[in-house]
Structure formats: structure tokens, C-alpha cells
Amino acid sequence: MIVNINIGLLGHVDSGKTTLARALSTIASTAAFDKNPQSKERGITLDLGFSAVVVEAPSRLKSLAPNLEQVQFTFVDCPGHASLIRTIIGGAQIIDFMLLVIDSQKGIQTQTAECIVIGELLQRKLIMVVNKIDLLEEATRAAQLQKLNGKLRKTLAQTSFDSDSTIFNVSALEKINIEVDLFYLLNIFLISHFVIQDLLDNIVSQVEIPKRNKDAPLVMYTDHCFSIKGQGTICTGTIVQGSVAVNDLVEIPAIKEQRKVKSIQMFRRPVQTAAMGDRVGICVPQFNPKTMERGILTQPGYLNNVYAACIRINPIRFYKFAIRSKSKLHITIGHDTVMANMILFKSVNNKPTEEFNLNDEYEYVEELEPTINSITEDCIFALLEFQTPILAAENATLIAAKLDLDAQSNCCRLAFWGRMLWCTHANNYALEVLPIFKVFKHKSKQGFIQRLVNEHEIIVENLFSKQGNREIYLGKQVVLSTGETGVIESTFGQKSKVKVTFMNALRPETLNELKGGRFGSVKVLLNYKKYIFNKQLSLVQ
């Protein structure tokens, strides 16, 4: 038996990820090592690249799975350019393990930090690889690497990663690595040169057999699609859920058609079945590959378009901007990125933080300030209304980013993430579904007493505008700044006045103020809840 483990190579542009993937791999796919003509022309990775190596399974894993003979590592080479962050996010969601590649001369850069954030929120295991050590001056190389390694460990200490995580100092081009150990008391560096096989051995020593949900309905993220004359259309990608076999019927939601699987290959090796975690090419009867360059294959009928979703927000502390209701952000699910309108709200029932109930009441939140993002104990939810419907499975991970920020700015563009707690497949959800949401705003109006009628009645002015509809407020409670509670009994006059009555007589001190003509010293307050999605429930106290 062979098990496949997907290892992502992430990092800033031009840190040597593709060269490292080539050094570690013995098997190349049709999408490996920047074969894209534009990648060759520009000298950078523009899309996900895939290559692999097969090693003997370590005894540690064989003891857990006696039938296990080999482990295949599929290397997912992610682009590093800032403008390709959505491709990076998509690639990170299909990996089990992460190699963070860092240029030894430049250290941690903007996209390096964003990759750390992505790995952290997806809870991937991490090895840091400091690359291009052959470009450092030999006389000062050890000192420079020791200083950089120290900075990297300090950075890791601020994350959920272990600050003692392995750091490899390598030259992917020269296929060597330098192990740097510091004897703090003696301040002596021991430098040893090994072939890059040491890095691969270390990966083998750290990996675990991933948990695979093979019994769930099939979901496969496809990243390349092309036709072969006489055979059909080849969809290559990673199975993220379930399994597939030759002769199975699969659905291509993007074109709303179904096809029978003619054959399956795993790095040019024919197989009859494949399961979650496997990188495969699936051949199906002909369709135009341009209609699905990047998309999803599923079990028929499993996925439908999601028009809106609700998540609990997990803010990313490096995001230095306010997160505001009624703003727009880019939302990435799998390989797809779409714009979404956002409404924030918070629980008022002290429910468990991950629980969302459509029947509960929630309070509208105008914005989360950056300083609050990392320290708030409130359970903040976001209703995301997608401008373009998106395909997503239940409990899918969503990552929100502000990708219209200047890609060259020294800012983290990743705002927050969360798992889908609720979604709707109704394309007219604004009429059918949104009115069910009990999201309210606290509203307050303030007026003044215009005249004292008697100890039980007053006339109030300026509580409403002259053009406002006073009728909808009849029967609502008001509170005087002196503490008495009354009810709006009726409108008064032709403009904005209303009559307020009190079951209990006004307090003597209040009456004295009013009888003395000091009407401005007593304020009239009207507090109520306004439901933002349901006009029929718009005024509730």
C-alpha cells in the first residue's frame, strides 16, 4: 500500500521554491517546474506546480498501518508573487504539510508573513527552509544564518507554531544544506555539509498519516484541464473529500453536466481508484476544457451554488484595518475567489462561540477596530452575500482578504477566516431567507417636553422629524431623564409632537422643574430595536 501526503512549498516570490521542488522530486507532472510559457518568460511561478517523490515508509508509520509500504510526497509549488495570493490560498487548502521557503539574503518578507498566517489558520505542520545559502559570503555565512535563524524562531514564537520547529539552511541549486548549531557558552559554530537528502529525511521523520474522509461524497479541486484527441478531457487535481473509481459518474458543476470516469492516473501511473489526499488525473468523455480551467468535480448532486453564508469570524491579528459592515472583501473557498458584501453581528445569548442559530437574536456590529480584532471576547459572526454564487461543501473554510490593497505595500491583506456555519442555495434569498435573520440595531431618539398637561400627561416635541411617520411609534415606551417611564399615546398637532402618558404620576421634583418652566432640563428618550432585514419587525422594545 502507498499513501500520498501533499507538501506545500510557500514563500515570497523568488525565494527558490521551484528549484527546491525540483531538487526534492523524482517525478514531474504536466504542471511542474514552471512549464507554463508565461512562467518561463517572466521567470516566476504563475500557477500551482506539482511534482513528487516516493520513499519507503518509515517503521514508525508501518507500526500504525502494517500494510503500508511506501509514502508518496506530492510537492505543491505555490506562486509567491503578491498578485497571486488567491492561488496561494487555494494551494494551501489542499496540503497536509508546509515548507516555508525563505531567501537567506532577504529574510521574512511580506508574502512570507502572509504564508505563515495561511499555514497557521489551516493548522498545517511547518518546516522552515532558508534557501540560497550559496549566495552568502562564506566567511560570514555561519554568523548570518545564526542571526536569521534566531529571528525566525522569534517570529514563530508569536504564532501557534512551535518556536523549536526545524529550520533547514539549504542551497536548492547546489543541493546542499548547512546545519548551524550554536554553543552559547563557547560561541562556536559547527558547520556540516550534506546533500539535500537530509531535508527529505527530516520530512519523513515528521509526517503523520493524514486523516482521510474517504466515505464522504467526492469533492475534487481541479487546477488544470486539457483535452487529448481520441481519449477525452483530462481533469487534474487533488481529491479533498471522498473517493472515486473508474466507471463512476461524476458531476462538473461549472457546466452542470455529468460524465463517466474513463480512467484515472496518479503521476502517469494508471490506478483503478483514488481517495482523499491523492493527486490524480481523471479522464472523462470530451467537454470543452476552457469552461473549467480551475474548478470542482463532485459526486452528482452533492454541491449546489451558495449565494450567502454565515461564519464566525476569526480575525487575523496582522490585519491592520478595521473590519466593517457593508464593506466588500474577497472570499476564497478552495480554488474560487469571489467578492462578498458583509454584515457583522454578535451573539446576545451567551451561546457557545461556534454555535449559530437562525432563530436567535443577534446585535448588529458596525465595525471591528484592528486593536479589538485580537482581543475581543465577543462572538462575532459575518453574513457574507456573494456577488457571484460559489460552490462549497458544508463546514468549508472561508478566508477573507482585501486583495485590492497595493500588492507592494508592506501590509497583511488577510483579514479573517472561518468555517461555514450556515448557507443558502436560494438565489432569491434576499426575499425568502434574509427576513428570518433577527439582526437588530439599538436605536435611540431624544426629544424635549414642550408642555405639561397634568401630572400624568406631557406633550413632547423634536422626538421625531416633521416628515417622520409618528403612527408606528404609538404604544412604545419612553423614559424621562428623571427616571419615569411613559407611553406614547397619540400624535399631537400636525407636525412632530406626540402625547405621552404616565400610569404613575410624575415625581414631585420633576413636576417642580416643569412647572417652573425648565422644560429643557428634562429629556425624553425613546429606545428600541430595529431589525435590519425584516421591516415587519422593524420596531421592537
TrEMBL record:
GO MF: GTP binding; GTPase activity; translation elongation factor activity
Residue ranges annotated for the Tr-type G domain, each copy included: 2-211
Biological process, per Gene Ontology: selenocysteine incorporation
InterPro entries xref list: eEFSec_C (IPR049394), eEFSec_III (IPR049393), EF-Tu_GTPase (IPR050055), EFTu-like_2 (IPR004161), P-loop_NTPase (IPR027417), Small_GTP-bd (IPR005225), T_Tr_GTP-bd_dom (IPR000795), Transl_B-barrel_sf (IPR009000)
Xref: CDD domains: eSelB_III, SelB_euk, SelB_II
Coiled coil: none
Gene3D superfamilies linked: P-loop containing nucleotide triphosphate hydrolases (3.40.50.300), Translation factors (2.40.30.10)
PANTHER family: ELONGATION FACTOR TU-RELATED, SELENOCYSTEINE-SPECIFIC ELONGATION FACTOR
Listed name of the protein: (Mediterranean fruit fly) hypothetical protein
Organism for this UniProt entry: Ceratitis capitata (Mediterranean fruit fly)
Source species taxonomy: Eukaryota, Metazoa, Ecdysozoa, Arthropoda, Hexapoda
